[in-house]
Specification:
alpha+beta, 9-stranded antiparallel sheet, two-stranded antiparallel sheet, 11 strands
Length: 196
């Protein structure tokens, strides 16, 4: 009897969490992370950026309503770039949100065997929501070693974010399809030249 009651409670909790997930998370597919509909949405401006883009920072809410993840989302004419944090915390003095991800990449095209090991960190001032993004190179002996810092000013907005993201993802698919078509045309031209 006790086991049946325990299973019933587990089932009810699982069902409740499933409903909460459906209610609060917007899913664009496996390749796109789930972003909470009621998180904190910041529209940000980097005055030194050389590329035209719309830049968002989204702080994701977990089921308890606490921030637990940061997404940095850039929307270009040719698509969308999404950075997702691995670690997220509030600083010891409670003045900043700090999110970071470490990535190790082996370059296999021009520089075979060269490895990048970089940590990207976003620090958000909890008072004025200004952001500092730091990309730290962890391999000081790498000949391309460098560390860069960028500064953003942000405003709280939702600004039809999910609709803009959907449009950006569709633009990215169109851009990719166009590139694939161009590549097929070039490939056919190369094959025709080789026949001659």
């Amino acid at each position: 009897m006790k086991i049946k009651v325990l299973f019933s409670i587990i089932f009810l909790v699982a069902a409740f969490l499933g409903v909460k997930n459906l209610k609060y998370l917007y899913d664009f597919g496996k390749e796109i992370p789930k972003i909470s509909k009621n998180g904190l949405f910041l529209k940000c401006n980097n005055p030194n950026s050389t590329y035209p883009q719309t830049h968002y920072i989204v702080l994701n809410n977990n089921l308890l309503g606490e921030y637990n993840k940061l997404f940095s989302i850039s929307m270009f004419d040719s698509g969308v770039s999404i950075w997702e944090s691995e670690k997220f915390k509030v600083s010891d003095d409670k003045s900043e949100y700090i999110a970071s991800t470490r990535k190790e990449i082996e370059h296999i095209y021009k520089e075979i065997g060269v490895i990048s090991d970089k940590t990207t960190t976003y620090s958000i001032d909890r008072q004025d929501l200004s952001i500092v993004r730091t990309i730290r190179d962890n391999l000081e002996n790498d000949y391309r070693w460098n560390t860069s810092t960028e500064y953003y000013r942000c405003n709280v907005t939702k600004d039809d974010f999910f609709n803009n993201l959907k449009i950006g993802l569709n633009n990215g698919k169109k851009h990719l399809n166009e590139k694939e078509k161009q590549e097929k045309i070039l490939q056919k031209e190369r094959e025709n030249k080789n026949k001659i």
